[in-house]
Amino acid sequence: MEDIISLLPDHVANQIAAGEVVQRPASVVKELLENAIDAGASKIQLIIKAAGKELIQVVDNGLGMSPTDSRLAFERHATSKIKQSGDLFSLHTKGFRGEALASIAAVAQVDLTTRRETDELATKIKIAASTVKSQSLEVAPVGTSMVVSNLFYNVPARRNFLKSNTVELRHIIDEFHRVAIAHSDIHFVLYQNGAELFDLPSGNLKRRLLHIFGSKLEDKLVPVEESTSVTKINGFVLKPIASRRTRGQQFFFVNNRFVKSPFLHHAITNAYEGLLSEGNYPGYFLFFDLPPETIDINIHPTKTEIKFEDEQSLYAILRAAVKHSLGMFQVAPILDFDRDPNLDTPYQQQNKSALIPKIEVDKDFNPFQNQSPQSFSSKLSPQWESLYQEVGSTESSKINLLSSLEETSSKESVKLFQLMNRFLVSSTGSALLLIDQQRAHERVLYESFLNKITNASATIQQLLFPLKMELSAMQQGLLDEFSSILNEAGFLFNSNKKGELTITGIPSVCSENKGLSVFEELFSHLENEIRQDSFSQTDLLSKSLAKTLSIKRGKVLKHEEQQQLLDDLFACKEPQLSPFNQQIFVSLSKEELDKKFNL
User: Fold this and answer.
1) Each residue's pLDDT tens digit, 339-373
2) Which of 267, 489, 495, 511 has its CA 20 to 30 A from that of 522?
3) Which numeric CATH code is attached to 381-599?
4) pTM confidence score
5) What superfamily in CATH does domain 10-202 come from?
């Protein structure tokens, strides 16, 4: 019987390794930027075309490489960062696996130009699919230029799995932000299709954050600094007022390396306990300085997962440091033994005005008139009695619920009330209904915006006083992509080259005092959570606007508003599910209610 085990050819092994290291253009960006940092560069330029699918180029002014090193760098497991296994526990550099360049060269066309200060000429190497095509000498400045073209050109199946240019660009910018925030002492520049997206001069961490996220962040930053025998922590957290409904501004760095840690995130969330609105997430930019031997970064090829030797101590120190900083800057409540905490205004109610109680007087009430107990029961609201009568009566347990809803909702006698400021309670002839008011309104708005954008029939309200906001580079790109469809949805605006947005008109369903917040949440949705589940720009924008403008849980609705929402919901094409495929209402049939009460 013949032997069946054989060694894989190098180019096949490289492509397999590339499957772990190079998942998308952003993976290449990360590896090349980290190599430039390890080379001691003080200025790094990132140039991309077609969101990295056509071209990714990183130019640095670092040390450069010799002709031998530049050739050897593309071999698997070739690295200058470690010499023996013990070095894995004292890492101070970024890349150390020695697989990045070999993996990239296996699935793309690579041109490397590099020169050391001691060399008169630079070395230029051309590689395609792990094969060296040429090596020559030419004139070039000190440093390295790495050009990666036509990513996945020889693996078409992998290329087909790439997302749209906008999605891939967002991933690239995410990686660029992570590296740029970790190294504020380095000058970074990012170009996309010939246009400059970011120019981040060297400086301190605060200056770097303001350059990336805009000057509006300045008054929202709370410094954090702690030094113990376990770790040193420094950086910033965001004030609770700056919390967002997405996880966009959350950055952990361990020894200047970006990491993801749900464990540490839980410590942050714990420190903000009682300070955040429901559904909001805190923002933070925190750096940990730990002895390399107390961490293990060698878990996954992307090197974003990490293990800590003493997790419990790190958790406690981080939580205490954040709580201390929030308290120092009078963001968190101050401990006072002379006050009664039961009299404190809850955080969620601090900005709300007091409600004037409604007083109703029965002018026909006569305290001297003798009445039997039965007469009081006759004055009970007939609405409740009829509600339970309708719930209890049914002709058939198999009645079509939706047809019954449409028929019942058209009658003026339908009984309806709000429960817990979250649900609408109604009934049909055969069931009791509990309707989630936020999801119901999301469905109504979603179908309304779909119709208006498709038919270009949106009603616009002109603003007497235009609204202004400062855009980040990512937001400017999103605005350019969605400008025409935003106009069709009812937004009127213009922006200049400085990234200043002026809003002059908004849809009629949007109140004027929410104009800016609508745009901010809209950008947040487009950057993050909604895009993955959308089919088109129209669908994407309609979902985002519906999520932003919908009635939220906790809002008190007048009876007329409750009735209008119910009517609008059952006039929708798909009243059972929200735009995000979440159930809008549940029904309890007579049989189910009887079973609950053992009847």
Assistant:
1) 455 555 655 566 666 677 777 777 776 666 655 54
2) 267
3) 3.30.1370.100
4) 0.69
5) Histidine kinase-like ATPase, C-terminal domain (3.30.565.10)
